[in-house]
Task: inverse folding
């Protein structure tokens, strides 16, 4: 029976690995997360080996029963990971051999840890990518709920963080729904490219055994197999691609966080976050801080760092497998866990925030955000746009000088700039009209926002 402390590769070496080097080399403290994928992959491998006559049916049955019992014991808490093992693969194999004897030693036929770990991480990421998609859908549902509530609430739209044109709060929120929909699409695309089985590539050159890689891939739910054994063990593009998708999710969450932080400040006060998602100050009793949103904004840099760490690790690696590639796991695991954590807190934070439409409307009344509509009024009556633009600019300057707004100027004051102006201009520049007449698809009118909400709901149901 194999001693746990004896390495699987010990036959070549005359002395034991230095204890510090052993700790440095070990990855079980983090790759133990993949125990389920490792065991399921090994069950499929045993089935393939028996199907091809490489191991006996009795050995296959013993291996599968042993692996199933290991999985059950890990998940029930009966079996703890042995941190003296080098990695999760060695732990499972050693435990299997301990339980069923020599049959367990036959499991590793026609595979290497190189293709085994490549298989495990693809399966692990495939499973966890689906969890991210579920969380993204939950967040989009929260956005749709609030967009429906705020579809007629008027506030200033901004460019350069300057008040620009009137929009609805629902319209603003639906921009984020589009971002997160694209994030779902990116993850699905990345998983589709990742979903090819490397098992059977062995160390790098394949195997002399008559294996059936397609059978094993199908058993594990893959779309097919990797077509080059060197690429099968050395490819980590799928990790980078998923981490890039996670970084974009975090960027979108960070932008959303920044706006929520602004909106909930006293300077804006468009929304108030629920007490369950805010904190106070240790010294200032009046404070209500948007700490959850601030933490999400901060954790974005962490996920970016994970991505760049892996890109840097892979940058100069020759083919095929190199131990450097062990560094992929901590980075990708952290990126997944951080992204999931942020999404999990963000959806209920959005869902429970209170909208304050009167403050939104008050802000929209200032800043001359209906100036474009005033220029459009003149162009619809025949004036060239550039001429209308200049006249409206002069009118805005007059309003600033008089400390008033466009709605408050008299018709006589307007006619001093152009005889085209008539009484109907006041209806044309009202905030409600400015919003409702933007009927183009994707625009800010209530009907357009309703159409956007319906479209996104259909996309989510696909």
Result:
């Amino acid at each position: 029976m194999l001693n746990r402390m004896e390495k699987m590769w010990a036959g070549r070496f005359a002395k034991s690995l230095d204890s510090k080097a052993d700790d440095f080399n070990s990855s079980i403290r983090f790759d133990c997360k993949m125990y389920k994928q490792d065991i399921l992959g090994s069950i499929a491998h045993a089935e393939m080996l028996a199907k091809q006559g490489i191991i006996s049916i009795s050995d296959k049955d013993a291996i599968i029963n042993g692996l199933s019992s290991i999985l059950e014991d890990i998940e029930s808490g009966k079996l703890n990971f042995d941190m003296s093992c080098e990695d999760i693969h060695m732990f499972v194999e050693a435990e299997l051999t301990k339980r069923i004897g020599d049959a367990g030693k036959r499991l590793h036929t026609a595979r290497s840890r190189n293709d085994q770990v490549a298989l495990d991480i693809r399966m692990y990421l495939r499973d966890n990518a689906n969890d991210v998609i579920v969380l993204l859908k939950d967040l989009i549902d929260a956005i749709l709920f609030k967009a429906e509530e705020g579809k007629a609430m008027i506030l200033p739209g901004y460019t350069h963080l300057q008040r620009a044109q009137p929009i609805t709060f629902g319209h603003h929120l639906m921009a984020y729904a589009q971002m997160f929909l694209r994030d779902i699409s990116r993850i699905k695309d990345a998983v589709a490219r990742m979903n090819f089985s490397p098992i059977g590539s062995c160390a790098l050159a394949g195997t002399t055994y008559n294996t059936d890689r397609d059978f094993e891939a199908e058993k594990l739910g893959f779309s097919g197999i990797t077509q080059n054994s060197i690429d099968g063990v050395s490819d980590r593009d799928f990790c980078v691609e998923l981490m890039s998708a996670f970084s974009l999710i975090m960027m979108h969450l960070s932008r959303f966080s920044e706006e929520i932080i602004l909106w909930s400040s006293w300077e804006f006060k468009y929304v108030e976050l629920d007490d369950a998602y805010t904190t106070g100050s240790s010294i200032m009793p009046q404070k209500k801080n948007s700490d959850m949103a601030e933490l999400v904004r901060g954790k974005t840099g962490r996920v970016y760092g994970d991505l760049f760490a892996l890109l840097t690790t892979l940058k100069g690696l020759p083919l095929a497998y190199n131990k450097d590639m062990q560094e992929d796991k901590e980075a990708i695991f952290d990126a997944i866990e951080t992204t999931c954590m942020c999404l999990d807190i963000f959806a209920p934070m959005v869902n429970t925030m209170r909208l304050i439409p009167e403050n939104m409307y008050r802000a929209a009344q200032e800043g001359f955000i209906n100036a474009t509509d005033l220029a459009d009024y003149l162009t619809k009556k025949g004036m060239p746009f550039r001429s209308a633009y200049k006249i409206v600019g002069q009118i805005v300057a007059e309003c600033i000088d008089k400390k008033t707004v466009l709605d408050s100027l008299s018709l006589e004051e307007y006619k001093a700039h152009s005889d085209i102006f008539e009484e109907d201009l006041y209806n044309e520049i009202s905030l409600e009209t400015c919003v409702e007449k933007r009927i183009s698809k994707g625009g800010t009118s209530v009907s357009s926002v309703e159409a956007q909400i319906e479209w996104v709901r259909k996309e989510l149901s696909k």
Observations:
- The chain has 20 helices and six strands.
- The chain has a mean pLDDT of 94.
- The two ends are 52 Å apart (CA to CA).
- The beta strands are 154-159, 162-168, 196-197, 224-225, 271-272, 354-355.
